[in-house]
Design a protein that fits this description.
The chain is mainly α and about 160 residues long. Helices cover about 50% and strands about 10% of the residues. Among the domains are: about 60 residues, Orthogonal Bundle (Arc Repressor Mutant, subunit A), CATH 1.10.10.10; about 30 residues.
């Protein structure tokens, strides 16, 4: 058929879940560690990267062997946090979760584990921090008011 093109698929077509998956044995994968977060930040900044790219990007802050970086990426892939595709002999990784999703997961973990789900206690602890200034408090006030309006609207609609 002249003029037709075979359907092209993205190299990321099998990108996997958009939320943290459980480990293959059904266990919760747990929180993302600081080192894993550093790796994810490289992927978020670059879009995609090889083991060598990640190692190079982290070299100024952390001296990591290529095998360490490869292991970190492999574990993140097993948890459904990153995916990869082959490019020649190298694997090219990209994050499946964005920074907001990872932050949300970390906050959920702290709220559940430390504050036993008590959102008010969690917020109170954040507000007690010494590094909060008037500008922070004003932004928080605006966010609380906006969320209260959303909840009021939802309650009226249901």
């Amino acid at each position: 058929m002249s003029g037709s093109h075979p359907e092209r698929t993205s190299p990321w077509a099998e990108s996997g879940p958009q939320q943290l998956s459980t480990h293959s044995k059904g266990r919760d994968p747990g929180p993302i560690t600081g080192l894993q977060l550093d790796v994810l930040r490289v992927l978020w900044a670059r879009g995609e990267a090889t083991v060598a790219d990640v190692q190079s990007a982290l070299a100024a802050r952390r001296r990591l062997a290529p095998t360490t970086v490869a292991t970190l990426l492999k574990r993140l892939a097993a948890r459904g946090v990153v995916t990869h595709r082959s490019e020649g002999r190298a694997l090219v990784y990209r994050a499946l979760l964005d920074e907001a999703q990872v932050a949300s997961q970390a906050i959920d973990e702290v709220a559940t584990q430390v504050f036993q789900g008590d959102v008010a206690a969690f917020a109170a602890e954040l507000l007690r921090r010494e590094d909060i200034d008037q500008g922070d408090l004003e932004r928080i006030r605006v966010l609380i008011e906006a969320r209260a309006r959303e909840l009021d609207k939802d309650a009226r609609e249901s």
